[in-house]
Here is the input.
Amino acid sequence: MPDLQGLLTRLIENEVDFVVVGGFAAVAHGGTLLTQDVDVCCDFSPDNLMRLQQAVADLHPVHRMTPARLPLELTPEKCRGLKNLYLDTDYGQLDCLGNVMGLGDFPDVKRGSIEVRLEAGACRILSIDDLIKAKEAMGRPRDKETVLQLRAIREKRPDAES
Here is the structure.
């Protein structure tokens, strides 16, 4: 069983600069669709990627999209030019994105995020409005269902505009 909360805790504790952007962000806003991975948009600087690697080092991270499922063995030199990392770990899948469809690159995504407090500390997630934009841009059936849920949640919030 995936320990997605455990993955987030490790990222927070290792001071990785990231924003939760996928199904886990939808759940944080009140969505009900289960997710089997953690999708984050992060700073792809060598320093940040080295902190990310440290966060998952003992979880046997491997590159999920390579046929040989190569282990994650980053160096500052190897970090240059990376845009995405798709990892399998002992705690579950971690997808690290350099940009989010419909929103842009990491600085744009971070501007559209809000801070939430978790047991491990502060964590940034996409705002409900930006999460809707991202899910609409993806356009997959599961994303469309998530958009319907997020819109309904947004409308029921006391701070929603009429």
The first strand starts at residue 18 and ends at 20.
